[in-house]
Amino acid sequence: xxxxxxxxxxxxxxxxxxxxxQAELEETNRGVVALYAELxxxxxxxxxxxxxxxxxxxxxxxEFRTPISAIRSITRLLSDRVDxxxxxxxxxxxxxxxxxxxxxxxxxDDLLDLAKIEAGRVEISPAWFEMVDLFSALRGxxxxxxxxxxxxxxxxxxxxxxxxxxxxxxxxxxLRNFISNALKFTPRGEVRVxxxxxxxxxVRFSVSDTGIGIAPEHHAAVFDDFAQVDSPVQKRLRGTxxxxxxxxxxxxxxxxxxxxxxxxxxxxxxxxxxxxxxHKAETALESPK
Length: 289
Hints:
Helix content: 40-55%
Number of domains: 2
CATH class of the largest domain: Alpha Beta
Mean pLDDT: 82
C-alpha cells in the first residue's frame, strides 16, 4: 500500500486539475455566452435593417402610385381625343408615354409585393378552381397587349387535369410574369402556355417561347433579385429584374418551385410546379364534388 502522504499528494493534485478544468470550462462558457449575445445582437440588427428596407419599399411604392395613375389618366384622355384630333407624331409620343407609365406601374407593383413578402405580410387565400378558367382569364388579360403581329400567344387546352386548391391570384401573377417576359424577348414566333399533371400531387405550368434564349451559365441567376440577361434585346427593354425573383418567392408560398430550360438562340421554357392541393398534409379538406 502507498504511504498516506503520497495518497494525500495525489488527491491534492487531482483537486488542482479539477479546479483548473472547472476554470477552463467556466471561461469557455463565458465565451460561448458572449458569442451567443453577439449573434443575437447581429440578428436583431439584420431584422431591423430588413424591416426598414421593407417599409421603405412599401412607402415608396405607395407614393409612386398617385403620379403614375395621373400620367395614365392623362394619356387616356389624350388618346380619346377629348381636346381634339392628334397628329401622327403626337399619337406616337402618347403611346410611348402610356407604355412607359405601364412599365413603371408594373415595377412599382413588383417592389410592393416584394416588400410584403419580406415583411411576411402576403396572405395566401387558397380555393378550388378550374385551370380552364385560369387560362381564360390570362388570355383575356393579354389580348389587348398583343401588339406584335409576328408573335402569337397560344394557350393549350388543359385536358384531363384536376381542379386545384391553391391561390389562383398568386399563381396567375407568376404566369403573368412568365408570359410578359416571354413576349418581351420573342420578337417573332410564338409563346405557348400549357399545364400537365406530373403525378397525383403536383401540376406543372409551363410558358415556352421561340425567343432569344438564355445561355446555360445564366440559368442559376435569372431568379435572383434585379437579375437581367445581358443581350442586345435586354438593353432596349426596361425592367427592374424583379419579376422572376418575385415569381420564385410566390411559388414557395404556394408550396411549389420554379425552373428554367433554355438554350441561347433557341428559346426558353419557364415553369412553375405547384401541389394540386395546397397544404394537403396539414389541412383536412374535403375533395371537390
